[in-house]
Amino acid sequence: MDTNTFNNEYEQVDPAKDAEYRKKTRKSLYVIMGSVFVLAVLAVVITSIMVHKNNNNNNNKSSSKTPPSTGTSSAVALKAVCKETLYPDLCYSSISALNLKNTTDPEELFRISLRLAIDSIHSLSTTLAAKKDTTSANKALEVCQVVLDDALDTLNDSLSSTEVLSLPKIHDLKTWLSTTITDQDTCLDALDEVNATALIGDSMTKPTQYASNSLSIVAKILGVLAKFDVPVNRRLLGIGHTGGHGFPEWVSSGDRRLLQQANPRPHVTVAKDGTGDCTTIKEAVKRIPKKSNNRFVIYVKAGKYVENNLLEKSMWNVMIYGDGKDKTIVSGSLNFIDGTPTFHTATFAVAGKGFMAKDMAFKNTAGPQKHQAVAFRSGSDNSVFYRCNFEAFQDTLYAHSNRQFYRECDITGTVDFIFGNAAVVFQKCNIRPRQPMENQYVTITAQGKKDPNQETGISIQKCTISAFDKLKAPVYLGRPWKNFSTTVIMQSNIGAFVKPVGWIEWVSGVEPPKTIMYAEYANTGPGAALGGRVKWAGYKAPFSAKEASKFTVGNFIKGSRWLPATKVPFDWGL
């Protein structure tokens, strides 16, 4: 960002229950996916019939027509699918070249589009790897290597997931493809930080467009289902109630208990005084099993741990908890000014799915003069943060990608201190702007949605926005970082220090594009008045309850699937 206890019941997935669920729903899913196919080709069939009818009318006679060849049918079907993408010409030319069986099945066409994206990103990654050690932008290229490898891993997961396709899987695919695009954009951001985008030229264009086309195809399938209101659609989409329970449903019942327990039994205990299994968190991280479906618990005793940690993408379902957000503190000071790319400045970073943190503090103490200095970065899908503290100055919390949920956390910073392109909901958190450097202003959020079909954005609900210190600088709720930036603040208390205009442009004096989506709903406090807010085309005012409900836990991050019932106070919707 630019300046200005542990038992088997705690396993994440209960195989018996999962198998039973699949058995009960398999028949319905077959019906649904059959409907997907029918609906996807319905427009093509109707068009063919209408053309045939018009020809008959024009000739004023009946005639028998030779059925179109398989190749012709395939071409028509492919054009219908590609028409829904942002890059239809590339979609058609690239997929038709690989569609050797002339299939009209949109699922298979989608799989082909995924293979194209995988091949192009692999080629790009290989090209960039060859440039390392030959340029001064090596650290930025290292970021590219990391995020492109993650993108490939995500795309391969997506391809595997198409073997048994269901509506929940479609939601997953939309999330993962959104992340793939974000990963590529992160590479560009890293190069841009050091003015080295020339190294990549336009070689990022096609990989990004291939990923975008795949996202468009899967997004439009969902759109058709929603439009025709296929039975069981609402239940599978998680639009029903959760009984007024706690976390979104992608946290299992075992994980709920882990979050609620005062002292869940850990696999590893970290203690600076030597009373645990390790004296550093880094030692504990080395013990995390790879790609485990079972929850791995790390307990960190009170103390200040000055170290940087990364939980790689292969480290699944890890929970780390401490003795309190003011007692167990992880601290670092990596920063951009001293030569570290923003992406790698994080004191603590997680990429593996299913990460949970509770009663911990994560800080970056580099100071405002060091500019970008991240306290915590998360690219973990279905990640949960409960009663944690994130503290730094610029770029404090990097909600990079995938689905994330923050409950009763404190986030403190100055410039763009909540940023990234995750689908993220903050609920009942304390958001605390602090005094920046002289002549700086404070921007709370900077959201990075790049593609209109990405299911990403920042949702701040029932939070308190209050000053951390003696705040004198101008404060804005945020600024749109990318062309489709999406941020909603609702049912929150906003302090008087927020400027009446509310929001500010990314580039001074240049109104952001109308494609952004910024809104406020039912906020309170002296800074919540809407009368003086920006008049941008992309700022939605008034904003209805129906519109706001799209950004709740239940709808925005499909929380009814991955954060099930809990005793922790929680509102599923508004």
UniProtKB/TrEMBL annotation:
It catalyses: [(1->4)-alpha-D-galacturonosyl methyl ester](n) + n H2O = [(1->4)-alpha-D-galacturonosyl](n) + n methanol + n H(+). Residues 73-217 form the Pectinesterase inhibitor domain. It is an enzyme of class 3 (hydrolase). The active site is at 416. GO terms for molecular function: enzyme inhibitor activity; pectinesterase activity. Its EC number is 3.1.1.11. It is found in: Secreted, Cell wall. The lineage of its organism: Eukaryota, Viridiplantae, Streptophyta, Embryophyta, Tracheophyta. It comes from the Eukaryota. Pathway: Glycan metabolism; pectin degradation; 2-dehydro-3-deoxy-D-gluconate from pectin: step 1/5. This is Pectinesterase. The keyword RNA-binding does not apply. One of its GO terms (biological process) is cell wall modification. The chain crosses the membrane at residues 29-51.
